[in-house]
Amino acid sequence: MAADTFTIQVCYASDAVQFLRALQVPAGTTLEQAIGLSGVLDEVPGLDLSQLQTGIYAKKKPLDTVLRARDRIELYRPLIADPKHARRRRKARPAAE
């Protein structure tokens, strides 16, 4: 492995598919470039990068973020239900007897 490249991971998960790929990228690679190199957009039908949020190790990051060695890029699906609203609904229900 050359000194000017390093390993990163790209991951995405849904009900139907799980994608995890490790790849070598050159120094200066952005999050968006790494997603393109990983092939996730080709392998997972219907993925639209403009509609997904992205992050590194569960911290949201913009697509122009420059990567570091051992970063794990995560593609986040939109939430189906707002967690705060779901909690309020559960609390409002009468307790089971």
TrEMBL record:
Domain of life: Bacteria
InterPro entries, sorted: Mopterin_synth/thiamin_S_b (IPR016155), RnfH (IPR005346), RnfH_sf (IPR037021)
Pfam families cross-referenced by the UniProt entry: Ub-RnfH (PF03658)
Family indicated by similarity: Belongs to the UPF0125 (RnfH) family.
PANTHER family for this protein: UPF0125 PROTEIN RATB (PTHR37483)
The protein's name in its UniProt record: UPF0125 protein GTP38_10955
Organism, scientific name: Duganella lactea
Lineage, top ranks: Bacteria, Pseudomonadati, Pseudomonadota, Betaproteobacteria, Burkholderiales
